[in-house]
Amino acid sequence: MSENSLPTQHHPDQVEAFDPEEVRPDTAAAAEELAAAGPGAIIGVTADRLRGFFERVERLEEERKAIGEDINEIFSEAKSLGFDVPIMRAVIALRKMETQARLEREELIDVYKHAVGMD
Question: 59 with 49: CB under 8 angstroms?
């Protein structure tokens, strides 16, 4: 094989212009697809990867929606048993905080309450 006939190395996402003189049987379908696509079209591996990203995000959004519905059901159940849902949400937010940050926040709330005469 001569140096000129060696295949060139390309990044897997790279799409190059169609050269009808370089059509081989193994690339004929891809070449036809590229020729049929308009300027700026994304096809082949790059399009598949892009489509895959969209599908993964959409699937995760569906899961997030289902989880949100499950959480709302839990709060509805708690409310039906007499628990205060906004307070529950506030405690959950506090539980997510680092201890020192939570203590500082509670102290500031006390300072502000005292400043406006709520003690």
Answer: no
Instruction: Evaluate whether 16 touches 45 at the Cβ level (below 8 Å).
Output: no
pTM for this model (two decimals): 0.55
DSSP label at residue 6: S
DSSP-assigned states of every residue in 69-109 = HHHHHHHHHHHHTT--HHHHHHHHHHHHS-HHHHHHHHHHH
Buried residues in 24-47 as b, exposed as e (16+ CB within 10 A) = eeeeeebeeebeeeeeeeeebeee
Type and span of the H or E element at 61: helix 44-80
Residue 48: pLDDT band (50, 70, 90) is: confident
Calpha distance 95→97 (Å, rounded) = 5
Distance set, CA 63 to CA 21, 92, 96 (Å) = 48, 21, 22
